[in-house]
């Protein structure tokens, strides 16, 4: 009986240590996703001038002010909705839908969207 208790305590200790290590990793991923979601939901409007600048540099100022404005509105809504989705589903650690992850990352790159993947 004493041997059974020792084995059980050893097993319980191993399970506790492995689950706490996984919980630390999980909490980091979940926290990052929540932070990314809040940042994207709040700063989505920055996509409008960003896209206008990128489009203006590629195709000229007039095109940037017209087509860039509408493309920027699209990306603004997309980034804000992706941020809201990340906030709503933050307990499930997935990769960001919007690339670049934050609007201020790589300001010269136009925003793209990708599929959800587990982290």
Sheet bearing the most strands, described? 2 strands, antiparallel
Low-confidence stretches: none
What is the number of beta strands? 2
Estimate nothing, just give the exact number of structural domains: 1
Q: Tell me the span between the first and last alpha carbons.
A: 43 Å
Arithmetic mean pLDDT: 86
Strand content: under 5%
Radius of gyration: 22 Å
The largest sheet has its strands arranged as 1-2
Structural class, please? mainly alpha
Helix content: 55-70%
- Principal-axis shape equals rod-shaped
Topology as a string of helices (H) and strands (E): HHHEE
Quaternary class? single chain
Question: How many helices does DSSP assign?
Answer: 3
Could you explain the architecture of this structure?
By secondary structure, the chain is mainly alpha-helical. The chain has one domain (2-113). 70% of the residues lie in helices and 3% in strands. It has helices at 2-43, 47-59, 61-88; strands spanning 98-99, 112-113. The protein has a two-stranded antiparallel ribbon. The protein is rod-shaped. The chain starts with a helix and ends in a 6-residue tail after the last strand. The relative contact order is 0.15. The model has no long low-confidence stretch (mean pLDDT 86).
């Amino acid at each position: 009986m004493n041997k059974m208790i020792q084995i059980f305590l050893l097993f319980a200790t191993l399970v506790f240590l492995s689950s706490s290590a996984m919980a630390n990793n999980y909490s980091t991923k979940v926290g990052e996703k929540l932070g990314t979601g809040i940042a994207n939901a709040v700063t989505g409007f920055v996509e409008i001038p960003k896209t206008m600048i990128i489009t203006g540099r590629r195709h000229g100022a007039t095109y940037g002010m017209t087509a860039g404005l509408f493309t920027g509105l699209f990306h603004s809504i997309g980034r804000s909705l992706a941020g809201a989705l990340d906030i709503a589903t933050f307990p499930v650690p997935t990769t960001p839908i919007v690339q670049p992850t934050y609007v201020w990352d790589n300001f010269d790159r136009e925003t793209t969207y990708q599929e959800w993947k587990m982290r």
